[in-house]
Write a structure and sequence with these properties.
There is one protein chain. The protein is mainly α. The chain is about 65% helix and about 10% strand. A three-stranded antiparallel β-sheet has the order 1-3-2. Strand 2 and strand 3 form a beta hairpin. The two termini are about 25 Å apart.
Length: about 120
């Protein structure tokens, strides 16, 4: 019964379509490709370990070994996560001798995280 009541609260009491609002939403909708890329970005940032990696890289660049030690997972697992983050242009890397250092790709990545934290920390 609780699910039914909750469903009723989140719905209109009558069915009416405001076509002008629907049309405006369609006119301003993101292109499908952009929508998919944005969803992939949020999905990537939605994984706790990937978010820990991004948070650690906010302060300074780190290598895979450092990140694995910080998170408490294998270097292989971190490499896999970094590959996904790099494909989404959230992180980039540079090699210094035998060591491959990772860093946030740009300030937008840290801004996204900080904006989300600001939202979460607001009083309800």
């Amino acid at each position: 019964m609780k699910g039914y009541l909750q469903n009723q609260v989140e719905r209109c009491e009558c069915r009416c379509i405001h076509q002008e609002r629907v049309d405006t939403a369609k006119d301003h909708a993101l292109p499908e490709k952009e929508n998919e890329r944005l969803a992939a970005l949020f999905k990537a940032m939605g994984d706790p370990n990937r978010l820990r990696i991004l948070w650690a890289l906010y302060r300074e660049e780190m290598c895979v070994c450092d990140l694995a030690q910080f998170i408490g997972v294998t270097e292989s697992a971190v490499s896999h996560q970094l590959r996904q983050l790099r494909q989404l242009f959230l992180v980039s890397n540079r090699r210094k001798g035998p060591i491959l250092y990772y860093r946030l790709n740009d300030n937008h990545v840290s801004a996204l995280i900080h904006l989300a934290l600001e939202h979460l920390r607001e009083d309800p």
